């Protein structure tokens, strides 16, 4: 099940040093993953507003004295460039000195390995290995336990390295980030001033970096392409919190080379050598038989190919796969069981190697880009819908510029436009569009029409349509959309459909929907102890209940259950305790009444949950109303609920319970 963002927010003054703050609402989170999930859920439903916020931030950035000074310096350097040397001027202006980084790495490696007395080996990864380092890039290191002594556990090694760095005179600004998906230690090398990130638990990036580095250094034009696109993306803030990562951008470059027949697919590269398996993932490849890039192609032509190709890709419906070297349809491949055999095989190998099923590919994101080796990893999962809109606009404008003969004939103007002028163009276009919309729309109707014309947002999402006036206002409703995951469908096939008599003419999504509807009924009636009265129904895809309760059963729940205890049993136990301690307690007294609806799409692949107050209740969905708090808690609980747990005990009935 998709996991919504946590609704738990610590009070002001209780935010720890390692807290991550939402870039939009400044809500604090324990780690970056939770923060990104929150932004996708809470803020992606307002792409037009988000686009304005992004462009406002870009405007401030590019009009700052520092940015203007940098632009003028680059212009002077470009004017002095020899014919054909303009791109090299840009790269030298922004790229890091790799020799300095390598010298820093050598010193750091010797310090750590000497201090740890041969019990670890230090490996670089990231931009130092790929050759795509910019001046602000840091050095990424992986520490691998080794030696004749028993290897240290990750936590033990983490603590020992942290203690050593704090005592050492070679490092400063030590920061431990323990609660990230991959815990790291961040510090600064005193001699060079370079920032260093140390990771002790995930070696995968070393394999990925080695592949990218070998690919980049095979042909200088490819490395120039990668460097310039990284500079371009960073200048326009396409890389960063809530948007693409540098690794995602490089993966897009690889796919673009593949679709233009300049690089074989990773599947073909792996067929030329024996496998190198790590926890079920094959990281082997061989570039020995890869044909060289045609000598007739210039770096500028490679750049144009990139922008033109991605200006035509429908990201919402596609998966960019370097493993297969192509752009795939979501529904035909990962959206359909058996549509991607290599993916299914790797998932099984990973489960066999680790003893537990890996997390499935996050298909419900705004943008889907597959890791070259870890096929279940969506390297674009952090891109929100509004940021995808911004990325697409930047790519389209860049494609137009690279196709403009007047600009391409004057490289100094082309590169200045791509790195600085493109942002001016975006802001100017947005201002013109806003003025046209304002003139064409009566002032009293503008707020309603903006809400009604928002483009669809990938699940999970929430919309909050507020009243623009007491009369002729649209219904006040909060919505949440759920779609089946690949693991949900696999679970149904293996556990449920094998033991129930079913109509084989019906799609599997029909049974997913039926099981999910029963799950929601259980949560409402048993876990939240709500009184529900069926008002409307059209089986199997539509239900509308009147819900009510006089005390709070939804706040303050714990999701940390004991060993051997199911999620449902743990939540039910809390409900029983709440009924004893909260009934009649003024602190938990509420007057909660409203409508709760379920509406499925015609193909049963999407289930929308709606909650709305009773007619005339204008405060029913205010920010801190009981109905709003219930709905937020309900989504949070669904995100923690195990579909497999429900499906394992679910018996399909032709007619659902009408309670």
Automatic annotation (TrEMBL):
CDD domains under this entry?
Answer: NT_PAP_TUTase
**Any idea where the Poly(A) RNA polymerase mitochondrial-like central palm domain is?**
102-212
SUPFAM superfamilies documented for this protein:
Nucleotidyltransferase, PAP/OAS1 substrate-binding domain
Pfam families cross-referenced by the UniProt entry: Mkg_C, MTPAP-like_central
**By what name is this protein known?**
Speckle targeted PIP5K1A-regulated poly(A) polymerase
Task: Report the source organism.
Answer: Drosophila rhopaloa (Fruit fly)
Which residue ranges does the record assign to the Monkey King protein C-terminal domain? Answer: 476-650
Xref: Gene3D superfamilies = 1.10.1410.10, Beta Polymerase, domain 2
């Amino acid at each position: 099940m998709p996991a919504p963002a946590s609704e738990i927010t610590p009070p002001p003054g209780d935010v720890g040093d390692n807290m991550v703050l939402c870039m939009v609402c400044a809500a604090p989170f324990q780690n970056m993953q939770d923060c990104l999930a929150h932004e996708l859920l809470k803020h992606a439903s307002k792409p037009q507003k988000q686009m304005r916020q992004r462009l406002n931030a870009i405007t401030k950035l590019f009009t700052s004295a520092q940015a203007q000074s940098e632009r003028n310096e680059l212009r002077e350097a470009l004017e002095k460039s020899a014919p054909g040397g303009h791109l090299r001027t840009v790269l030298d202006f922004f790229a890091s000195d790799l020799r300095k980084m390598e010298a820093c790495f050598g010193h750091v490696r010797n310090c750590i390995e000497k201090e740890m007395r041969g019990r670890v080996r230090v490996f670089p990864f990231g931009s130092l290995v790929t050759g795509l380092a910019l001046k602000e890039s840091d050095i990424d290191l992986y520490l691998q336990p080794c030696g004749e002594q028993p290897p240290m556990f990750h936590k033990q090694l983490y603590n020992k390295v942290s203690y050593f760095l704090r005592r050492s005179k070679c490092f400063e600004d030590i920061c431990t980030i323990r609660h990230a998906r991959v815990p790291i230690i961040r510090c600064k090398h005193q001699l060079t001033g370079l920032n260093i990130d140390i990771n002790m638990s995930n070696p995968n990036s070393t394999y990925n970096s080695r592949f990218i580095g070998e690919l980049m250094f095979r042909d200088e034009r490819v490395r120039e392409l990668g460097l310039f696109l990284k500079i371009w993306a960073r200048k326009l803030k396409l890389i960063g919190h809530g948007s693409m990562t540098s690794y995602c951008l490089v993966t897009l470059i690889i796919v673009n080379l593949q679709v233009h027949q300049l690089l074989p697919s990773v599947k073909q590269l792996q067929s030329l050598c024996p496998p190198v398996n790590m926890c079920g993932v094959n990281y082997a490849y061989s570039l020995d038989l890869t044909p060289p890039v045609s000598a007739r192609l210039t770096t500028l032509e490679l750049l144009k190919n990139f922008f033109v190709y991605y200006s035509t890709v429908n990201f919402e419906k596609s998966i960019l796969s370097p493993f297969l070297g192509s752009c795939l349809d979501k529904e035909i491949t990962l959206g359909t069981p058996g549509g991607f055999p290599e993916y299914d095989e790797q998932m099984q190998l990973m489960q066999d190697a680790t003893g537990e099923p890996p997390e499935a590919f996050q298909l419900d994101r705004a943008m889907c880009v597959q890791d070259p080796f870890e096929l279940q990893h969506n390297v674009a999962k952090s891109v929100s819908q509004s940021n995808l809109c911004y990325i697409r606009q930047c790519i389209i404008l860049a494609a137009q510029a690279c196709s403009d003969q007047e600009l391409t004939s004057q490289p100094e103007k082309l590169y200045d436009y791509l790195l600085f002028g493109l942002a001016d163009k975006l802001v100017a276009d947005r201002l013109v569009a806003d003025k046209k919309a304002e003139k064409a729309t009566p002032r009293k109707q503008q707020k309603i029409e903006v809400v009604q014309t928002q483009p669809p947002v990938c699940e999970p999402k929430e919309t909050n349509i507020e009243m623009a006036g007491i009369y002729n206002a649209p219904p006040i409703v909060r919505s949440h959309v759920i779609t089946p995951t690949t693991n949900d469908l696999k679970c149904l096939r293996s556990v449920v459909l094998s033991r129930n008599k079913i109509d084989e003419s019906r799609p599997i999504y029909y049974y997913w929907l039926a099981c999910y509807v029963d799950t929601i009924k259980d949560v409402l009636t048993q876990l939240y102890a709500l009184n529900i009265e069926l008002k409307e129904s059209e089986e199997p895809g539509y239900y509308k209940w009147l819900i009510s309760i006089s005390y709070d059963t939804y706040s303050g729940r714990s999701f940390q259950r004991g060993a051997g205890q199911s999620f449902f049993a743990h939540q039910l136990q809390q409900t029983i305790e709440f009924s004893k301690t909260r009934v009649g307690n003024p602190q938990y007294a509420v007057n909660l009444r409203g409508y709760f609806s379920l509406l499925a799409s015609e193909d049963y692949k999407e289930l929308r949950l709606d909650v709305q107050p009773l007619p005339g209740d204008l405060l029913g969905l205010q920010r801190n109303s009981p109905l709003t708090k219930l709905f937020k808690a309900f989504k949070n609980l669904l995100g923690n609920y195990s579909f497999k747990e429900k499906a394992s005990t679910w018996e399909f009935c032709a007619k659902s319970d009408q309670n």
